[in-house]
Amino acid sequence: MTTDPATEADEEHHRGRIWRLSDDGRRRLKLGLNPETIRVLTRALDQGILDDTYVHDGTPVVLERISGTILVAAGDEDAPIPVRPFELRPARLAGLIAEQVDAYRVRKIKDREETYEEEVMPSKSVLEAVLARKDWPGLAPLHKVISTPVLRPDGTLLQTPGYDAATGYYLAGRIEYGEIPEEPTAAEVAEAREFMLKRFLRDFPWVSLADRANYLALLATPILRPMTRALSPFGVVDATMPGSGKTILTSCVGLMVGQRVLNWTDSEEELRKSITTVLGDPGGVVVWDNLVEGTVIDSAVLARLVTEHMWADRRLGTNSAFSAENDRLWLATGNNLRTGGDMASRSVWVRLDPDCPHPEERTGFSIPNLDTWILDPANQAVVLRHLLILILDWTRAGAPRAYDVPAMRQFTTWAQTLGGFLRHHEVTGFLDNLNDARELDDDHAEWRAFLLQWNRVYGDRHVGGAELRRSAEPEPGMPDRWDGTFPTTNSGKSLSVKSLGRRLTGQAGRWRGDIVLRCEIDPVTNCKAYWIERAPKPEGSPRLAATSETNPETRKPDEVPLDLGLLSPGFENGRTS
């Protein structure tokens, strides 16, 4: 007599695992008719019968290595993580069952009591029914695939390749960096600082100490993000000339943590689509590389992106919803870039100025041919290892924060955390160029110029929109009283009174440096009236007084920044010779 397959399967399940291992190590799973096969296969999948299966947002996924991935030949190319999660669908599930499982059904020989095992494959409808389930308590949740070690929320370092139950991360290393000591010695920390500051970053033509400090903060951001859960600002790596080293800086981050390189577009719709696409794949950095010289980065889509923890959109070509955690570092590179709109206050600048006609011809570097040197995974491992040692030395000290850094609205946690990391290693200048960046904000500069001219024309007198609009009309033979600062349409045409009123109302109360536009309803005309206010100058202090920070000639001997000794001998006033 044979035992009913369903009964035997239930008994095996109650004893624990519903599937067994054969002598050669293959999984064996006994199936029955369709209803029982759905129950049995669902249990088996939930018990991990297939290798590298996890659950993400209620959907079973399988991790697979991507074959044919070529080595990165240039810093401005994609550097994908070689292992990616794929949603389990009927066809892929059937293939994995055939590869890893002996799925069989017990059949009875006709007119005899003897039985035999018949290998079977569940039908497509059965596989669809299994995968329709959203509750998979036995599968480990997969949050993210990463390619470099990161700090867990408790401050410990995730560095063992494979799945990490504490975070739901899967570390699929692209480079061999060796075991990182949880408590690095003083000698190891000194060596790491020596390499990072006196060798690797020494020869970049930083405009100021702030640019070097800001870059180090961006470099460490993907590693610290799982611990801080903080939003990070948009990083702009800008230079005065091609060949200054912008792509080397961004690729150093991207090659370690996985990067996607995109082409910049002024179309908000295309920008939104590209963001949704890249967030659907694992990675750590997204770079818009080599923007056209003088590009103004002014995008409502980008401004929303960098200030939201979750990105929601619809899947391309469908009406289904898509959401993903905004866990990337977003960067752009170009020459003489500018920002506009809300992007100015949501960006951190790293500026380079080689101050020579042919930057690519410079010689005498600490690391020759750095653009190709960084493409070697072994060299990427050197940078990563030293960076991790600096981070672990900071966490060993309690991961102190810097609470006196400039306020950055949604990015305050990021600024305080990275500011603390840099201060721990005596790297000065972090975010000191925020005010300088305002000069690179076209929107800010244009409105400030207009308001300053308004102040010259009207002083603090209240003015209505119609009168203001009439004042912009040219008078024959007379110079333009607005000196070209009066707002126009994008095509340069004059604004209507109504359009001008909308723009002015949108700017009311927004300070542009030391000047602000005010607005109220005139009780007599019942129309809006506008006027200018200036911030009072601090008593007893010149408006542009030289300080030891801005003028090296006034700096006392004991005011030398802590880390100037780690810079190249040619570093003078924030610029390499």
Automatic annotation (TrEMBL):
<feature type="region of interest" description="Disordered">
    <location>
        <begin position="538"/>
        <end position="577"/>
    </location>
</feature>
<feature type="compositionally biased region" description="Basic and acidic residues">
    <location>
        <begin position="470"/>
        <end position="483"/>
    </location>
</feature>
<feature type="region of interest" description="Disordered">
    <location>
        <begin position="470"/>
        <end position="490"/>
    </location>
</feature>
<protein>
    <submittedName>
        <fullName>Uncharacterized protein</fullName>
    </submittedName>
</protein>
